[in-house]
Design goal:
The protein has 122 residues and is mostly beta strands. The chain is built from no helices and eleven strands. The N and C termini lie far apart (34 Å).
Amino acid sequence: QLQASGGGSVETGGSLRLSCAASGRTFSAHGMGWFRQAPGKEREFVAAIHWSGGSTLTADSMKGRFTISRDIAKNTVYLQMNSLKLEDTAVYYCAARSFRSASDRPGGYDYWGQGTQVTVSS
């Protein structure tokens, strides 16, 4: 129901834009989030957005570099990633929750996409 795409390989300092498209149902009234998981590490919060797009949360280490947005009409959420660093290498997951607000907790989400790989190299 949630399909993440846009991952790939990029050099440090580069940019990528991830997309998360919903199918089968609408998530227009749901808070949405992005998380990531690197090998051997726990799933980590990246960014989240209120259902209206009016408010967002971003992890401190990504503020100023990553921006979450959504297109309600397209049932799609985006993650613009700039100034990528080696430590941003991970599988990125999008998620939706049954509440309209944003959350930085993985447990606060009910629906998860399959993930898209982002690899940053020097």
